[in-house]
Amino acid sequence: xxxxxxxxxxxxxxxxxxxxxxxxxxxxxKADGSDQWQDGYPNPAVIEKDIVKGAGYVLVDGEIIIxxxxxxxxxxxxxDHIDGQWxxxxxxxxxxxxxxxGKYAGQGLAQQLLLHIEDFAKAKGIYSVKADTNFDNQxxxxxxxxxxxxxxxxxLLRGAPRKAFEKQLFDS
Length: 172
Prior knowledge:
Layout: E1 6-9, H1 15-31, H2 44-53, E2 56-61, E3 64-73, E4 82-84, E5 93-100, H3 109-123, E6 128-133, H4 138-146, E7 150-157, E8 160-168
Parallel strand pairs: 5-6
Antiparallel strand pairs: 1-2, 2-3, 3-5, 4-7, 6-8, 7-8
Helix pairs in contact: 1-2
């Protein structure tokens, strides 16, 4: 994809557009037969909390928000216990709640969003990105594979086992 999209911190005014994108992603997960996000999570309160904490980030096409994720540095207690092994033990960026607008789905934008997350990490001098997904979220599992994430094992998140991945980054 040759078009450059802006990746920026979410603002309070973005909350409605972000929630619309999350709702579309919830419906896509359901249509794909995935159990992920079918239990009332995430919800508007979760998105609000992300924005207030400064963790919400959006992918923007002109003035249109087309993607969302939440980013945290060294802040995922569930990752302290993995059935498997992380590639690294140092500082890391973790992302959650990746969603792309239905109008832009299928265009490789989740991959582009993950590349922006890598740039975010490197800008902070962090060379590890970690994430997890449901066992049946085929779209995200394919995205992890396409952008070079390595399967590390299972973590328990919100009471359910999840596939855990990590990508080591290097100075370019």
